[in-house]
User: Which sequence fits this backbone?
């Protein structure tokens, strides 16, 4: 097959380091091979570190990030359960959709696209509603480039006895995320963003409180594939008799193991700082060229920057030109931002000041 | 990461050809990149050939084979729909489980493990029950090494106006499979068996009749991830404006494209014959050594052979010895065959007379 090389500055996938691609292409072994179970254990250990959690039920789902979202809700919620979903972009909207399919009673809080979830509105909504089982929000909205205040949201939800579900697809490995300290109960992510791994996997973690809620379910989980009770005995028991559930994507998990190793080696704080510094540099370069960042400085998500497309500029021409002439992928706007914003990702391997210069130079030269 | 090399003679994954591993590790590009959409089209064309179908809705799901099973039923069936599930092993049992989670009314036909689905029993059950929406069966039971007569089953089901769902996880690319000629409506498979690709993907195809049934649904599909109405416009319309649904597992799809290319290049008939000849050779070698095949000759599934473990032989010691001393994976029994049968896979790259000799020599020398 012909090799196509792009510089990936969209909302993910980002470029994948060579050592991860090398791990990916190691010979396939069986998913029940003791050597593979050793790799699964290693992944679990490293992932717990990256999530900053002690949760025993911390593993990697065999499908993209949206299966992380679905797995969270179909297990945690039963029909009739009340859930508050905070919506400030595409992915909050998807949470609502999935919760409805579960048969949950969904209460929404909607905040303007490009702004974070409003903790005061959450507090008021919790005060106005009793018996809410869970609060769900998107830590890092990939559609708008906004970071919400996960710590405050979780604190408010917890003070009302709610479980907390957080979408951390674009924050894990790139932005401060402290699952245990903040009291997040179910957190999922994706492989292809700040972890700089290939797309197709979804890391996830469940707190003990979440596991307890799931164990008390009266109804069966509606999805067989996502039913974590079929996996729980393995992760929970400490026994190493692994029951067969489905055939794990062995090679992709080799890649994930290497991606997590790189994060641990670099250390989380250094990696978070690197993402922040790269993004700051990008803001300065683009602002100096007269471009406008859409999100207020204090709410920006360093791995993903939304830039307003100037009125006289043709979105498709610019992105097409970058792709076809320079092999550079720039992200288009999603949902309400389609056609009026670019999404520039500086994630994982690409989160450096040099790469920020590279994409700033390329974009500015097209204007 | 350390490389572990095994000769894989279990129920899958099988060994992956180098050219597929090379394709897998090509640089990642974006899932909305026009170059990637070209690859998706190529995959669709090749997959239609492998399935022997003209179905426009023929594509690869971003998760292992069990998501193929789940996607089939959650889309095709609505709560209250009547479905006949034929059970002659683990995977028929899983079909029943998933259909129940959908809220369907499930009628089962159970045949002895190690024997095929009985078409006469299906006919009688269809005559005794009206308004059956679909008949589901496993073409190639990976738990028992049995091939059922898909053509007859589909013919009977069709004559009663039913849609037909077939699990072809261990038959696609290794055993005769004629989706259109036989009248199969929903057919799914896995990447890691006779296609000799890495595990983690599930090829699937839907007939026009299946699509029509899905379009007439009154209720929403219970799974967001598996809801093909969210994907259908892309595959059905012929338009190439690809809507974003989830981030495709780009690298795994590179590998799938190469795996399918190899099948088309070899031609299906040659590949089916190769699997049959390798298996025949294996039977002779093992029978000459006094071992007994569990399945009657006419119902054997060439890619996967069940061998009875002699009474004085220690299953764990033999499999452990092969793995630890010779880096050979042999499959253990599943379900009712746990501890009393081995499952020997000769799939994809390993379906040759030479490889049959290799595993026969290795196993016989351990006895």
Assistant:
């Amino acid at each position: 097959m012909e090799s196509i090389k792009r510089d990936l500055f969209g909302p993910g996938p980002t470029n994948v380091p060579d050592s991860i691609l090398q791990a990916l292409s190691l010979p396939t072994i069986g998913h029940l091979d003791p050597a593979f179970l050793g790799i699964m254990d290693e992944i679990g250990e490293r992932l717990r570190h990256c999530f900053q959690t002690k949760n025993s039920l911390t593993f990697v789902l065999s499908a993209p990030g949206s299966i992380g979202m679905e797995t969270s809700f179909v297990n945690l919620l039963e029909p009739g359960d009340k859930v508050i979903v905070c919506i400030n972009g595409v992915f909050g909207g998807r949470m609502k959709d999935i919760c409805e399919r579960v048969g949950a009673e969904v209460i929404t809080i909607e905040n303007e696209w490009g702004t974070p979830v409003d903790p005061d509105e959450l507090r008021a909504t919790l005060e106005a509603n009793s018996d809410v089982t869970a609060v769900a929000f998107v830590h890092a909205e990939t559609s708008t480039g906004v970071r919400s205040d996960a710590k405050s949201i979780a604190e408010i939800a917890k003070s009302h006895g709610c479980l907390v579900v957080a979408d951390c697809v674009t924050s894990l490995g790139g932005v401060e995320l402290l699952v245990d300290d903040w009291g997040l109960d179910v957190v999922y992510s994706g492989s292809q963003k700040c972890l700089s791994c290939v797309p197709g996997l979804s890391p996830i973690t469940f707190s003990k409180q979440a596991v307890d809620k799931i164990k008390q379910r009266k109804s069966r989980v509606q999805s067989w594939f996502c039913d974590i009770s079929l996996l729980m005995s393995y992760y929970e028991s400490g026994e190493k008799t692994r029951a067969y559930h489905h055939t794990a994507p062995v090679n992709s998990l080799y890649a994930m193991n290497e991606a997590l190793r790189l994060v641990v080696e670099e250390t989380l704080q250094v990696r978070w700082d690197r993402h922040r510094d790269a993004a700051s540099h990008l803001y300065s370069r683009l602002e100096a060229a007269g471009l406008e960042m859409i999100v207020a400085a204090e709410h920006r998500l360093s791995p993903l920057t939304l830039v307003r497309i100037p009125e006289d500029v043709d979105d498709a021409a610019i992105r097409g030109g970058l792709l076809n002439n320079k092999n550079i992928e720039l992200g288009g706007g999603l949902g309400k931002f389609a056609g009026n914003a670019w999404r520039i990702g500086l994630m994982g391997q690409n989160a450096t000041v040099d790469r920020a210069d590279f994409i700033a130079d390329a974009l500015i030269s097209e204007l």
User: Anything to note?
Assistant: Residues 18-264 of chain B form a domain with the Aspartate Aminotransferase; domain 2 fold (CATH 3.40.640.10). DSSP finds 13 helices and 13 strands in chain B. Residues 76 and 214 of chain B are 6 Å apart (CA to CA).
